[in-house]
Every structure is written in structure tokens, then in C-alpha cells.
Amino acid sequence: MSDAELAVSYAALILADESIEITAEKLQTLIKAAGLVDVEPIWTTLFAKALEGKDVKDLLLNVGSGGGAPAASGGAGGAAAGGDAPAEEKEEEKEEEKEESDEDMGFGLFD
Predict the structure, then answer these.
(1) Are residues 77 and 44 in the same domain?
(2) How far is 9 from 25, CA to CA, in rounded Å?
(3) For residue 36, how many C-alpha atoms fall within 13 Å in the half-sphere facing its CB?
């Protein structure tokens, strides 16, 4: 990540922390106030457009959630969703156990 991208990222985080709307002008103002003059305006425009209408705090809190969150929340909602998920997890566990047992047989690449 370049210094310009890093500066704009930090400026966006500062604005999000203060619950201020993230715009290219506000990002540029923060960057200039920090004494960084070599950041091209294209970076502030790109970041402002990318974060437009998004809650940055929410994005940061859900970074690692991926596809697991909908399945976890669906278990409490209905019987059909709750009944399918545990069965799939059990099947995956069985497959993993089979793979692990193959490794315990003592066969390896250099044996």
C-alpha cells in the first residue's frame, strides 16, 4: 500500500470515527492538515466513491464474518434452516475425520 493510500485510509477512519460523512473534499482537508502534500486528489475521490453510503464502522466489525453469519442467524429463525445446518456440519466433520485417519497410517511422501 502506498503512502497516499495509507493517508487516505487513515483520513477515512478519522471521519468515520467522528461520524462525519466521507467526501473527497473532507479527506483532502484532513490530509493537508496532516502536512502531506504529495497525495493526488484521485485517491480521495476513489475512496469517497468506494465508501459512499457505507458504514465504515460496520465494515470493520464484519471483516472476517464471510458467509458464516447468515447460516448462524438462520438457525434461530425457522425450523427448515435450523435443521439443515447441523446435518451439513456433521457431514463435514466426518469427512475431516476420514482425512485425518489417512495421515495416521504412517504413509508419507518420503517413507
Answers:
(1) no
(2) 14
(3) 20
